[in-house]
Amino acid sequence: MISENIKHINESLPAGVRLVAVSKFNPNESILEAYTVGQRLFGESHAQELVPKAEALPKDIRWHFIGHLQTNKVKYIAPYVSCIESVDSLHLLKEIDKQAARHGRVINCLLQFHVAQEETKFGFSIDECREMLQSDDFKNLKNISITGVMGMASISEDATQIEREFTQVKETFNALKAEFFADKPSFCEISMGMTHDYPIAIRCGATLIRVGSGIFGERMYK
Ligand SMILES: *Cc1c(COP(=O)(O)O)cnc(C)c1O
User: Fold this and answer.
1) Atom of ligand 1 nearest to the CA of 216
2) Shortest CA distance to 97 belongs to which of 186, 87, 208?
3) Do the beta carbons of residue 42 and residue 49 sit within 8 Å?
4) Distance from C-alpha of 171 to C-alpha of 84, rounded to nearest angstrom
5) Residue 192 pLDDT
6) Which residues line ligand 1 (CB under 6 A)?
7) Averaged pLDDT score across all residues of the chain
8) From atom 15 of ligand 1, which residue's Cα is the shortest distance away?
């Protein structure tokens, strides 16, 4: 049962950790079932799915965009998202800033880091990210707020490896906090951990976990 899964996970979370219920490929009725037991934070990974859901569902839902985001899709989601967790280039960030300005908003963004073994995963390296944060182009952006980092561990049975990768995300957060965001309390989120690895992520310092199939059941697609 969706409502029981939501309650069970939320009750087990330590203070300071929040659940993003990943509702991709699940219908509005399933989202409403989670909503009814108090869940307000949901994650979607496709623009064409997020927009109709955001239009149809209660307005106090906060939508996090968690999937790889193409620049040409930003304009569709800009009115609806409370946070884009998957920022992986300055090019994308500039477009988010532009579309946020068009809607008179500031959009929260997490910087995604590549820590997994798989080449197919997206994200900055720490050096690429430093270069961006030092650039004038970045400093001129007014309609985005960088609120933390996001990462995905390798798909692996090896808990030690997963722990090593999550620790790398946490250390990246610490380094960026010290170098670029020391005077910004809003830089505070570490989003990591999915259905199969979120307990490890919590031990490694996650503040946001993103759980989909553990709530809504197995999906046909990733
Ligand atoms: C699908 C997805 C999740 C949730 O995955 P589950 O294994 O179903 O919990 C989390 N994060 C991202 C980026 C995803 O695409």
Assistant:
1) 8
2) 87
3) no
4) 21
5) 98
6) 22, 24, 45, 66-67, 152, 194-195, 210-214, 222
7) 96
8) 67
This prediction has a pTM of 0.97
Ligand 1 atom with minimal separation from the 24 CA: 1
The number of helices, as runs of H, and strands, as runs of E, in the chain is 10, 8
Using alpha carbons, list the distances in angstroms from residue 5 to 18, 201, 214. 14, 19, 7
The answer for residues whose C-beta is within 8 angstroms of residue 146's C-beta and 6 or more apart is: 109, 110, 111, 181, 184, 187
CA of 222 to the centre of ligand 1 (A): 7
pLDDT, residue 119, reads 80
Atom of ligand 1 nearest to the CA of 86: 13
- Residue 98 Cα to ligand 1 midpoint, Å, equals 28
Q: Burial level of 122, CB count in 10 A (0-12/13-18/19+)? A: middle
Q: Which helix (H) or strand (E) holds 209?
A: strand 208-211
Which tokens in the block code for residue 207?
């503040």
What is the per-residue pLDDT for 159? 96
Q: Which of 173, 166, 169 is nearest to 146 (CA)?
A: 173
Residues of the chain with pLDDT under 70: 220-222
Q: Which two tokens stand for residue 151?
A: 């990462």
